[in-house]
Amino acid sequence: MDFVFAQFLTGLAGAASLFLVASGLSIIFGVTRVVNFAHGAFAMLGAYVAYTLTARFSGPFGFWGGILGASVLVALFGAVIEMALLRRLYRAPELFQLLATFGLTLVFEDLVVLVWGPDDLLGPRAPGLAGAVELFGQAVPSYDLLLIALGPIAFGLLWLLFHRTRFGVLVRAATQDREMVAALGVDGRWLFTAVFTLGVFMAAFGGAVQLPRDAVNHTIDLRLIVDVFVVVVIGGLGSVGGAFVASVLVSELDAFGILVLPGVSLVLVFVVMALVLVVRPFGLFGRAEAPSRAVPEPGRKPPAPLSAPARLAVAALVAATATVPLWAGDYLVTVGSEILIVAIFAASLQFIMSAGAMVSFGHAAYFGLGAYGAALAVKLLGLPMLPALACGMLLALAGAALFGWFCVRLSGVYFAMLTLAFAQIAWSVAFGWTGVTGGDNGLLGLWPDGWAASPRAFFWLCLAAAAASVALIRALVFSPFGLGLRAVRDSALRAEALGLGRAPVQWAAFALAGTVAGLAGGLFVFLKGSVFPDSLGIGTSVDGLVMVLLGGIGTVSGGVVGAVVYKALSVWLISQTDHSKLALGLVILALVLLFPAGLGGLASRLAPRRRRAAAPAVHPAVGVGGAP
Amino acid sequence: MTGRPAMDLLAVEGLAKSYGGVGAVRGVSFALAPGEVLALIGPNGAGKSTCFNMLNGQIRPDAGRIRLAGTDVTGMAPRRMAGLGVARSFQIAATFGSMTVRENVQAACLVHAGGMARPFGRADRRFRPEAERWLDHVGLLAQADRPAAELAYGDVKRLELAMALSGAPRLLLMDEPTAGMAPKERHGLMRATVDHARRNGIGLMFTEHDMDIVFTHADRVLVLSRGRLIAAGRPEAVREDPDVRATYLGGGLTFAAAPGRTEAVS
Amino acid sequence: MTGRARVSRRASAAGLGALAVGLGWLGTAGAALAADIKVGEINSYSALPSFTEPYRKGWQLAVDEINAHGGIGGKTLVVVSRDDAGKPGEALTAANELVSREGVVLLAGGFFSNVGLALGDFAKQHRIVYVAGEPLTDALVWSAGNRYTFRLRPSNYMQAAMLAEEAAKLPAKTWASIAPNYEYGQSAVAVFKKLLSARRPDVTWVAEQWPTQGKIDAGPVAQAIAAAKPDAILNVEFGPDLVKLVREGDTRGLFKGRSVVSFLTGEPEYLDPLKDEAPEGWIVTGYPWQAIHTPAHDAFLKAYQDRYHDHPRLGSVVGYALIQAVAGILRKADSTDPETIVAAAEGLGFDTPFGPASFRAIDHQSTLGAFVGTTARRDGAGVMENFRYVDGAAVLPPDADVKALRPKE
Fold first, then answer.
1. CA of A296: which chain B residue's CA is closest?
2. Which of B98, B112, B120 sits opposite A486 (nearest CB)?
3. CA dist., res. A195 & res. A31, Å (int)
4. Residues A279-288: pLDDT tens digits?
5. Domains annotated on chain B, with CATH
6. Set of chain B residues whose Cβ sits within 8 Å of the Cβ of A496
C-alpha cells in the first residue's frame, strides 16, 4: 500500500512536468490554431538557458531566478519568432505554420549543439530540495513534491488569468471564435503575439524545471513534443483543464502500467489516445469543432485535368527523366530511385490531404506496412520481388482499411492524432516483435531480383511505378469518386443532404492512399536491401507532411515537386555537412516565407492569366483546425 | 384543412425536440401534399430550423413520427432521406466551394444517379447537359465555370436550388431560399421554383423572413412560436389570426404596411 | 480551360525541373580529390554528437599520424567522412555515394547497431570490406555476419561476459534488470542472465524494467525496482536515460546497500556528464583514461591532449584504433581488390592504445578488450578504480559455438 502511494506521487510529479509544457501548446493552438511543432524545442531551449543561468548564479535565488529568467528569455525569443515568422503566415493554409515550426525545430536542434556543445549537460539540483522525504516508509524526492504542487498552482494561475482578466476573456473568446475577437475591435495581431509568448513561456518553464531531474541534451524536443501533443489531444484541444486531467491520466497509467507490463511505455500513451478518441472523438473535454466552412485560397482556380499539350509536356519530362541512367552514375541513379519512391509516398499522402482534407500524421504506417509486408513475403514465403511488392500493398491496404475505419469518424487535428496513434502502435509492433520483424535490427538481405538488380533497371522500375501512381491518383481525383471526395471535403453537410455520406467515401480514399504508400514502402525495401522500424516512425510521417506542404496543399500533385526538392536537398545536405538539420531548417523557413502557397502554388502564381484575388477569405480549404 | 388531396406526401405527427430540457420544438403536426407549397414562419428562435433539420434527418427527434408517402422515415439519416427524394437548401448556404458552379450540379446529378463511386472516367464529362439545363433554370449558366466560392451570396442560393432540383426530388425543403438576394430577384426565383414544384408534383416547404414572399407564393402557412404550432391555414386567414399578430407583436416584430415590401422586421 | 490546364502543367513541369536541378546539385557533390588511397567513413555525427565528436577527433589524429609516417605504402590515406543522421537508410545512401562516386576501397564506422547491420549487408551485396567501429550487436559478426564485415569494439556478448564474471563473485542472489527496450538492451540482459546463471545457478531474477530508449520515466522505474527489493541490479541504460536513472535512484535510495552491475557506465561519455553525482561502487565496463599507464596509451594520450586540449573519450580510442586497424589492413593487402583485403584483414594484428589486438579469422571480431572496474568519485567527478583490462579473446565463446552461429556462405 505504501508503495502504491509512493508510485502515485511519482506519477503526479511526472504529470506536473507534462502539464506545464502541454498547457502552453493547448493555449497556443486554441487561439492561433498554430500546430506548434517547435513547442518541444522551446522547452529544450528553456532547459539549456536555465542550465547556463543556474551554473552562473548559485543559491536558491540563483536557481529559481535562473529558471524563471530562462523562461522569460525564451518567451521573449518566442515573441520575436511569432512576429518575424508566424505573423506572416496566418493567412497561409493553416498547416503551413506546422511546416514553419518544423523548420524551426530542425534549426534549434543543431544550434543548441553548436552553442552548448555535444555533451549531455547535468544541471544543479534545486537548493534545499536535493533529498527525499520519508512518507509511509518510502523515500519520495522532495523535488517531486514541489512539482506535484507546481502543477495545480500553474493550473490555478492560468485559470485566474483566463477568468479574471480582460486578456483571459479575450483568449477564451478567441478560442471559441477567432472572428468574434476581430469583431470586438481587438487587435488580433497583438493577441496572437501575447498568447504565443505565454505558451512559449509555459513550455520553457516546463523544460527548465526538469533541470534537477534530467540531462539537458539536443533530443529533448522530439521526446517532449509527441507526448505533449498526445496529452493535449486526449484532454481536448484548447482545454487547459483537459490537458491537466490528461497529464495525470497518462502519467499515472504509465507509473502503474510498468508494474504489470515493464515495456508498456513504448506504446502506452498512443493506446490511451486511440481508445479515448475512438470513444470520445473530441478528447475528454474538447468540444466539437464547428463544421468546416471550407473556402479555397483566394485566387485558386478549381483543379482540372491536364490539357492535351500539358499531357505531352509531362510525358516528355517523364521520358527525359528516363534517360537519367544513361548519363548519370550509379550513385545519382540510386538517389533518383529514392526520390521517385518518396514522390510516390508524397503523392499518396497528398491524395487524402488535398482532395480529402484528411491530414494524416501517421501515413508512415502504410509505407512501413508495405515495407514489412514485402520484406516478410520474401523472408517467410520466399516470393520474388514483384509478388512481394503486391503482398506489401495488400498488407498496407489491410492496415489502412482497419485503422481508417476508426479515423474517418474523426476530423481535423483529432483525425491527425488518431492516425499518429495507429502509426505508433504499428511501429511498436515492428520494433518489439523481434522474432518476426527483427526489432530494431530490422530485416536484411532484401535486394531486388536479378532483372532489377542494376541501379538503372531499378530506377526504371521506380519511374514506372511513380508515373503510374501519380497518374492513377490524378485520374482518381478527377473521377466521379474523386469529385465525391472533394464534395465531402468542401461541405459534408451538403454532400449528406444530397445523399453522399462522408465516412464511406473518406474510408475508401484512405485505404487507397494507404495501398499506394505501401507500394512506395515495398520499393524502398528493395532499394535499401533492408527494412527497419523507422520506416513506420514519426520521422517518416513528418517527412511526408513536409513534402506535401512544401509542394502546396492546394495543388493536385504539388507534393511530387515537394518530394523531389525536399529529398534531393536533404540527401545533398547530409552529404555536405554535419549541420544538415540547421541548413535544411533554414531552407524550409526561407521557402515558407517566400512561397506561402507551396512550390506548386508558385506555378499558379506565375501563371500569366491569374485571376484577380477574390474575397479576402482567410479560411483555407484544408486545415488541421478544420474550422475557425 | 380543406382542399387538400387525400394522399399526403409528408405527414408529421407530434414532432418534438428539446435541448438541455428546453423544448425547441413541442408537438408539431402537419401534412403536405404533392405540388403543394407550404411556408413555415415564426419569430427567431421559434424552432423553424430545428423543425426543418428533423424533417430531412439532420437532427433526430425526441418524439413524433415523420412519414414520407406513407413510409415511416423518423430518425433516418439525411443521405437515406435524399435517396427517398428529399432535397433541401440550408439557411447558411452550403455548396462545394472549390469546384466550379457546373461541377457542383454535376456532383448532385452523379450522387442522384448513384454514379459517385466510380473510380474511373472524368467526372467533369458526366451529366454536363443536365447540369447546364438546371443552371439555366436558376439563371446561373453564365457563371458555370466560376469557382462556387466566388459567387455572390444570392447566387449561392440559386446554386443550392439547382443542386436540389437536379435530383428530381419529391419533397423540397428550402431554408430561407431568397435571403441575400436583391428584392426584385426574389419573386422571380420563387415564382419559377413554385411553378416547377406544382408542375412536377413536388411538395415544397420553405421558411422565409420576407412576408411578402410568404404571402404571395405559399398555398398554406404554418406559424411556429416557442416550438408550438399556433396557426395553420391559407395565407389570408393566417394573416388575420389574432394569435399570430400577438406573437409577432409580442416578439417585437411587426408587419410593415406597404404592399410589396411587407417584411417582418425587428 | 486552358488557363487551368496551364497551372497544372506548370506545377508538373516545376516538379520534373526540380528533379533535374536536384540531381544537378548532387552531381556537384563528388568533385574527386586526387587522393592516393581513399577510405569511406560513416557515422551518426548529427544524431549523436556526444559520442561521435571525440570519435572523429580520434580518427583524424590517426590519419595524420599515418600520413606523417609515410602513409600506406607511400600513398596518402584519405578518409572521406559522411553523416548518417542516425538512420540506416541514410547510411546506405552515404555508403553508395562513397563507393560509387568517391571510389573508396573500404568502408568504416557506424555507431547504432542497425546502421552497422545495414552497412554490413551493403558490404556483402556490393563486395566491399566494412570495418565497424562502435556497433555492439552480436548479430553483426554472428547471425548476420558475412565475409566482408569486421568489427573492432568488444561486442555485447563480450561486455556481458566480462561483467558476468565479476557479478558471479558477488553474494547477491536476487537480481533485477533495467534496460532500454530494444535489441541492444534485450540481448545484453539475455546474455548476461545466461552467463551469470552458468556460474551461479542459485541466482533468481525478481524484477525487470524496459523503459523506452531516450524516454525513461525514471521515477516510476526506480520505484518499481526498489519495490522488488533485489540484492543486485543490472543496468543497461546509458546517456541521458542513465543520468535520470542515477538521479532518481539516488534520491530514492534505490542503490543504497545494493550491488549494481552496469554496461558501459565507466566510459567517459557516460560518466563525465554525471559529475559529482556519479555513482560509487558500480561494477562497470569503461575507459579509465586518467589511470592507464602503458607506453601505448601514454603516447596516445599525450598526442590527443596536445592536439585537442581535451581528454580522450572511449570514442576517441575507437576512432583512433579503427583507422590504425584499417591502415594495417590496407598496408598488408597492398591492393584494392576486396577479396585480397578480406584475406589481409583476417587474422591481422594491429596496435591500439589499449595494446595489441587482432581480427579473428573465424568471425571477424577483433580481440580489442575493455576495462572492468568499479566507479568512484574523485574531485567532483566520476572515475573508475580497481580496474583491469580484459582482453577480448578471453571472453569469446568456443570456436564451435561461433561456427554454429554464423550463416553458411
1. B98
2. B98
3. 7
4. 998 889 887 7
5. 10-95+169-265 (3.40.50.300), 96-150 (no CATH)
6. 77-79, 82
